[in-house]
Amino acid sequence: MPDQLLNIEDVVRLTGLEESLIRFYESEYPAELPKKILLGGALFFDPASIAAFAGIHARQQGAESGPKLTRERFARVITVTSGKGGVGKTNLALNLAIEFQRLGKMSVVLDADMGLANVHLLAGLTPRHNLTDLLSGRVEMAELIEAGPEGIGIIAGGSGILDLADSRQQDRCRIIESLVQLERAAEIILVDTGAGMGRSVRDFLQAADEILFVITPDITSLTDAYGLLKALHQENLPALPIHLVVNMVQSLKQAADVSLRFSSCAREFLGRDITDAGYILKDNTVSQATARRTPHSIYRPNARVSKNTRTIAANLLQKEQRQSAASSAFGRYLNLIKNGQAQLPLTRRKTA
Ligand SMILES: Nc1ncnc2c1ncn2[C@@H]1O[C@H](COP(=O)(O)OP(=O)(O)OP(=O)(O)O)[C@@H](O)[C@H]1O
Ligand SMILES: [Mg+2]
Fold first, then answer.
1. What atom in ligand 1 is closest to the CA of residue 87?
2. Among residues 32, 114, 173, 223, which is most buried (max CB within 10 A)?
């Protein structure tokens, strides 16, 4: 990079402003800032940006609206994942969003499963657009959010996610910038991923504030979950908080046994602490709700599975991560991409 061009760290250092505030000024006052310079597939700041940012900031500090800006809040980005498929991630992401919404938190589900994007099916929606349209520039982020049950937002998946993983750095940055906008609008973003550690899953794990791991008492679910955890650990994923949900259990005792076994393993062999976010009983209500294309928390709010999901939402709210509100998870990821640090090996590592 030539000396005169600046990356975001330079701008943070030279202006003394937080990165989130710089991103905010970038999105709010584009006309007052010099155009970014594209070099080697990445965008850099013009040195004149420093004075421009300082000017905008000084004006904001003086303006009545100044204090509002310093209280800017970003959504909690919770990526739902699992080692094995079919453990209940999509049902959990969707119904958890509904329960969060009932607890007063504006929630959005982002369908990032490139294999089987089915959040909209479970929610009974026929989306007008999906992430492919955002990638091709046909729609803006705001048009992509469908109004779902209980007022949650749903962003339908599709092959767009796959395109995102394979797209040019410039396009990836543009999409992630749109997701930063979404973080300003919502309070909680639940990202539903496919199982395992494909490339798009890694993207969304890196762009998370927290990871919600779903396992079942099934032995292959446990070994696959442990394998995924080990892969995450070896990939040096930032030490994000990991919450565990044990799904499809027969009893509270079974849930406690499985949770304890998994978290002790993680602590002993990987030195990772995992918090227990709760459990969900095996319940036919889930398949009945699916047949009606209605989330179970809407179809039968008082069914065991819905009550369990409500408890998980309450548990997660209690474990509110202060730092997630103060900075943008997707913004941090954007920096990793721009600095070329977001590239991880494509294949999932073999686990012993
Ligand atoms: N608590 C539960 N009780 C009974 N059945 C459940 C429960 N949770 C999920 N299921 C059933 O398990 C199956 C998988 O659920 P879901 O699609 O939510 O899993 P997933 O992890 O998203 O799957 P994939 O990895 O394919 O995306 C569905 O048939 C669903 O009805
Ligand atoms: Mg799924």
1. 21
2. 114
State the pTM of this model. 0.77
Determine which residue's CA is closest to atom 27 belonging to ligand 1: 194
pLDDT in tens, 236-274: 666 788 999 999 999 999 999 999 999 999 998 888 899
Q: Give the gyration radius of the chain's Cα atoms.
A: 21
Average pLDDT of the chain is 84
Alpha helices, DSSP H, located in the chain = 8-15, 19-28, 48-62, 66-70, 89-102, 119-123, 131-135, 141-144, 160-166, 169-185, 199-206, 219-234, 252-265, 285-291, 296-299, 304-318, 322-326, 329-338
The DSSP output letter for 197 is: -
Q: How far apart are CA 338 and CA 334, in angstroms?
A: 6
Q: Is the CB of 88 under 6 A from ligand 1?
A: yes
3 state DSSP class of 175: helix
As a residue count, the chain comes to: 352
Q: How far is the CA of 87 from the centre of ligand 1 (A)?
A: 5
Which DSSP helix (H) or strand (E) runs through 243? strand 242-249
186: closest CA among 328, 80, 70, 81? Answer: 328
